[in-house]
C-alpha cells in the first residue's frame, strides 16, 4: 500500500490552501485547451515553499546546498513517526516529547513529526500549530538524523521571526519537509519508507514535492 502525504495544489475557492504569510500564492492558467488547440497546456506559478514542499539548507543558510545539489539518497529512507497528536494550539514540542524514540534515531532515518494538524489545512487555525523548540532540534541533530518532515506550516512557531529550528537543522546540512498530510497513516505501515524528492530546480532554496510512504516489503510498480 502506498500512502500519499501530499496536499493537492489547487486554486479552487472550495478547497483553500494554507500558505506562509507573504509567500506567493499558486496561479494556474490554461494557455492552450482542447478543442481550440490540439493539446491542453497549463502555466503554473508558485513559490518554492508552496504546498507540500521541502526546504534546502540554502533557504536560511547563505552558502547552504540548494535542492539540485542535495544528495537524493538522503531523501528516501526509513520513516520514524514521532506521534505528538496530543499537543494543543501553539504548544511546544520538547525533546522530552521525542526522547522515547531516541533509540531509533540515527543517520539515514527520516523523522516525521505527527501533530495531526493537517486536518486544519486551509483553515485559519492551521497557523496555530504546535512547534519544536531549539533544544529539541539540537538534540535531534545530535542523533545523526538530517531530514525531518512535519504536518504543519513549519517546525518553528509562525510567530518566531528568528526561525531557530530551521537554522539549526538546515545549518547542520539537513532538509525539512513541510505541510505533509496524514502522517498518522504511516503508523499503519510495517517498516515504512518515505520519499521526499524535490524538483531539480537550478540553485533553488526549496521545491514542491510529491511525498509518499510505503512498507519496505512492498514491491512498487
Would you give an account of this structure?
The chain has 221 residues and is mostly beta strands. The chain has a single domain (2-17, 47-215), classed as Putative cyclase (Glucose Oxidase, domain 1), CATH 3.50.30.50. It contains three helices and 13 strands, in the order E-E-E-E-E-E-H-E-E-H-E-H-E-E-E-E. Helix 2 (134-142) packs parallel to helix 3. This is Cyclase. InterPro entries: KFase/CYL, KFase_sf.
Topology:
Layout: E1 2-4, E2 27-32, E3 41-45, E4 53-55, E5 76-83, E6 92-93, H1 95-98, E7 110-114, E8 131-132, H2 134-142, E9 147-150, H3 164-171, E10 175-178, E11 192-195, E12 206-208, E13 212-215
Parallel strand pairs: 5-7, 6-8, 7-9, 9-10
Antiparallel strand pairs: 1-13, 2-3, 4-10, 4-12, 5-11, 11-13
Helix pairs in contact: 2-3
Features:
mainly beta, 9-stranded mixed β-sheet, 3 helices, globular
What's this, in brief?
With 221 residues, this protein is mostly beta strands.
CATH superfamily: Putative cyclase
Shape: globular
What would CATH call the architecture? 3-Layer(bba) Sandwich
Unreliable runs: none
SSE succession = EEEEEEHEEHEHEEEE
> How many DSSP helices?
3
**Strand fraction:** 15-25%
Question: Got a strand count?
Answer: 13
Amino acid at each position: 500500500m502506498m500512502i500519499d502525504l501530499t496536499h493537492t495544489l489547487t486554486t479552487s475557492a472550495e478547497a483553500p490552501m494554507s500558505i506562509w504569510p507573504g509567500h506567493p500564492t499558486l496561479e494556474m492558467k490554461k494557455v492552450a485547451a482542447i478543442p481550440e488547440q490540439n493539446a491542453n497546456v497549463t502555466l503554473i506559478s508558485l513559490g518554492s515553499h508552496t504546498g507540500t514542499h521541502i526546504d534546502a539548507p540554502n533557504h536560511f543558510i547563505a552558502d547552504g546546498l540548494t535542492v539540485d545539489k542535495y544528495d537524493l539518497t538522503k531523501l528516501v529512507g526509513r520513516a520514524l513517526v514521532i506521534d505528538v497528536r496530543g499537543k494543543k494550539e501553539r504548544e511546544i514540542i520538547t525533546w522530552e516529547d521525542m526522547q522515547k524514540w531516541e533509540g531509533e534515531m540515527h543517520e539515514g532515518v527520516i523523522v516525521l513529526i505527527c501533530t495531526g494538524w493537517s486536518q486544519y489545512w486551509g483553515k485559519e487555525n492551521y497557523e496555530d500549530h504546535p512547534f519544536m523548540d531549539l533544544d529539541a532540534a539540537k538534540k535531534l541533530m545530535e542523533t545523526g538524523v538530517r531530514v525531518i518532515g512535519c504536518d504543519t506550516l513549519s517546525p518553528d512557531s509562525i510567530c518566531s521571526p528568528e526561525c531557530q529550528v530551521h537554522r539549526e537543522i538546515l545549518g547542520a546540512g539537513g532538509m525539512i519537509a513541510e505541510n505533509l498530510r496524514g502522517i498518522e497513516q504511516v503508523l499503519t505501515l510495517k517498516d515504512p519508507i518515505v520519499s521526499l524528492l524535490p524538483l531539480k530546480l537550478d540553485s533553488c532554496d526549496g521545491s514542491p514535492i510529491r511525498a509518499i510512504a510505503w512498507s519496505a516489503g512492498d514491491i512498487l510498480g
